[in-house]
Queue: 3 jobs
Job 1
Amino acid sequence: MKLTCTQENFKKAIYSTERVVGKQITLPILENILLETDHGMLKISATNLEIGVFLKIGAKIEQEGAITVPAKLLSNFVNNLPSESTVSLEVKDQTLFIESGSSKAQIKGLGSQDFPIIPEMDGDFLFSLPAQETKEAIPKLSVCVSLDSSRPELTGFDVVLEKDVVRMAATDSFRLAEAIIELKKTGGQAYDLFLEKTNSVIVPLNTFLEVFRVIGNDTQEINVGIEESQIFFQVDNVRIVSRLINGKYPEYRQIIPQKFATKVLLEKDSALRAVKIAGVFTSNKTGEVMFNVNPVVNSVTVASRAEEVGENSTVLDAEIDGQAQEAVFNPKYMADGLGAIATPKFFLLMNSGASAAVIRMATDKKEEIPTYTYIIMPIKN
């Protein structure tokens, strides 16, 4: 193999692929990135057998070929190159020779024949999602994903497809987040036919984190395809392929209350600060923060107390519609929910101190924004 490409494109390509590579004791080739010529372009691929990433960049190819080289070594070398216009690659005797400006390197590689095949899609993409909205939603959902491998269905996002929207949800059984994003059909009748077979899949958290990482500021849309037990994402020139998680996701929408006895409008920054301060004054074992909603004086008191630490309380101004409430929450879970709020004010919606509370963003006109919902279960005293 012998070719030349722009340094900028090569750097971006390595950045977009190398993160899926992990430490593989049993299969060393999975620590490598595959470089290969493909129809007049340079194709760069990486996989950990659960997620595969590849992309193609333009190149001036003098000789066809392929090689795999250690991902971390190649990434560290390329990222520290001084700015030059081009990079030259040449393979001789299972060694990759790289040259860019005054910098040269030789990297020992392995043959490409043992590199796992990353699946390609048989059909067309089913739908597309707005890239920036999706990028904004992913971290808001990620905080709720379970880390308990004994329930693998909770270690990913539940992706529920409807006629015009996709509902993505995550839960660890203590709190739940749901984001609603408009979709655009791209596969014609294929999308409707897919919905007749199934309308939901479970996508691993790490897959969405990779999607998040490669969405650029100028990325407009993400194309999505689902085939058999795999999901495909196309983000600009990057293709991400992932296995789906087997299992049935809980029917979470049943636990989202439709009516509330109390509706509280609060300032996000003030509430988040109060929760974090209260968290300092909680026992490491219990981690309990009390919310006392008082509609008579339109205030919410956020308080905590631990014998070995001390106590704290903060009174927040609020607009309250409904009855008084008192509930105890985990401060970390509450802080995670408030941290996901992207508006200056939010609604805290409650029915009792023993039932799920709901957090939603608020518009300037003091209306609920239904596209993001965070549900937190109280701690029962």
Job 2
Amino acid sequence: MIYFDNSATTKIDPQVLQTYNTVANDFWGNPSSLHGLGDHALQLLQSARQQIADLVGCAADEIYFTSGGTEGDNWVIKGTAMAKREFGKHIIVSSVEHAAVLNSAAQLEKLGWEVTYLPVDKQGFVNPDDVAKAMRPDTVLVSVMAVNNEIGAIQPITEIGEILKNYPTVHFHVDAVQSVGKNLWSQVLPERVDFATFSAHKFHGPRGTGFIYAKKGRALGTLMSGGGQETNHRSGTENLPAIAAMSKALRLAVTDEAKKAQHELALKQQLVDFLSALPDITIFSPVAANFAPHILCFAIAGVRGETTVHALEAKDIYLSTTSACSSRSGDESSTLKAMKVPEKLATSAVRISLDDANTQAEVDQFIKVFPEIYQRFERMNGRA
């Protein structure tokens, strides 16, 4: 089996799974309990928080645990709206955000907030000047993702941050879910970023857990009310085995990170070179400094993306139609739509997403079997 769908989810690392099992068996007390079992669990919880903070480069009390990227995005966007509604009801998001951001913004619109959706250029990039133009006296939040999950475009977070230095009270949120392990920290988490969202299953951690970075002193409303966990910011008994496993996964992800990213980039380069030489194939994710090393989105003209996915699945090669979260809908990619890619071509798009565990042999096998599938599609479309 060749797994090229790592942006959808990654396989949990055996060391991470071992951590999960050990904590589940040996630290099963509730961290909120006053007795010794609870105290041991609390110590481990805080140790995991500190390790994540050290790896991200922030203080431990700026890390809050969540159930993943979707909750994190919802929390920051809606929590900002709750906390800052007296100061303004205008937010700015890019038009290529994950559905967790776009749908949260749409919910706020129904509740009376105004939302500006930033356009992108033909390659999928936000223009920082458009951020500056969109700012208003009642703007309370700007949310722009770090790495686009469909095409891998690295948004100009540093440049946007420079603009927002002129608006020190406006929250700046970055969905950083696709950036971990790709040697992009300086590009996606400059000092001006106030909030960042992370999800463990994107870097070989367990599903159903994640965290946000929340800069100290920034107000954020509470979505999950209850027993007061996470210093009364996010109630609910902490999933300690998953949190401990996530901290282990993050440590492993950033170990030799530059080397891993270079390995992925080398594999991507070979795939891009191979695919771009074939007629009727469009590459949306070139090899470039402003594109992530692991994401390759391409389309075969006249062939729907799901058809390509299933044809490769028959060869035991697994990829997705752009965003796996919405792939079953059969709709065109929201990112490609924002890029004004014609709908017929956009619905043909598929995404390869690599990981450091992918091998040269796997790329060689893809290059070996793809021409057969490609030629079949060319004949079906009367081009061969």
Job 3
Amino acid sequence: MRLRLGSERWLDSPSLRGQRVGIVCNPASVDHQFVHIIDRLADHQGATLAAIFGPQHGFRSDVQENMIETGHGRDEERRVPIHSLYSDTRIPTPEMLRGLDLLVVDLQDVGTRIYTYIYTMAYCLTAAARDGVKVVVLDRPNPIGGTAVEGPMLVPGYESFVGLYPIPMRHGMTIGELARLFNEHFAIGADLEVVAMEGWQRPMYHDDAQAPWVMPSPNMPTLDSAIVYPGTVLFEGTNVSEARGTTRPFELVGAPWVAAERFAAALNRRGLAGVTFRPAVFEPTFHKHAKQTCGGCQLHVTDRQRFQPVLAAILLTEAFRDAGRDQFLWRDPPYEYEHEKRPFDILCGTAETREQIEAGVPAEAIAASWVDAVRAFEPLRRRFLIY
């Protein structure tokens, strides 16, 4: 069966007639013809587009740099306000929701706990519950599949805008399934409808599903980036470049003190399943080590089913520390509105992973320490699966 996105099914619904709709979206909110949901709704005979809401990087994804707020604005062509939910507020205000019958979320997630779009959705659910507005989440594929679950669990005290709820780093759920989990299990209590896809199966990656790919965010250019992202995003918490400012962010990692060939050879000798570390040298145009030559590697995933991105990132972190004990650093706060805890700990959802690395615990043993918590999460996860 050919994939039908939640948005494609929802726009065919007769229940839209007479509704004033606000939509949380960005450039990836397209259908199989690459037509944006805003344009589809603007042409709809029964519904009225009343407001646009943009997540991190903006409604148009025109802010590439990380942790830069976007302003509010107006879409002059459609004559509706654009409300930024990565600005002075991340929660829709009562004024933003006034007059809406529906608040619709059509965002492409990437299957990783720290991706802020899922918390923009959670805050929309919270605001809608406060103001009595129905929320409709239009489901899209998890681009890295819906079976594998991996990584540390977020623990109490480490909640932030890159992790509001105790779920693993790689959660194996769609955005619609997460909406159900957040709303019911974490007691948000909004009037929620999830419009499911047709034709998607849990083992499918984005290309298996033949889903349209538009960059979900400016530094997520390809599916290859998304596959490694649950691991290499951890380098945002260090002074190692995750290759923002290059054409291959998150696939490339490196630092000025690293000799690429020796570094990659040592990693490949570890024999990590499903991935080859190719020596690489790059020069970021912005962000960490801008205009400096960085040595490191590019991750080439050779077997998606066996590859464990978070384990790979822990192995890489150990390797960068070993390559330059005096140069490698954990970044200091602030990070994503958190001003006290280390960014690496906020990303992991716990300080334990960093402490294990500092204590010299091997990467494989660190990964083994996550297993019990991930297994305990599975029954809860299964309650909210749709497919």
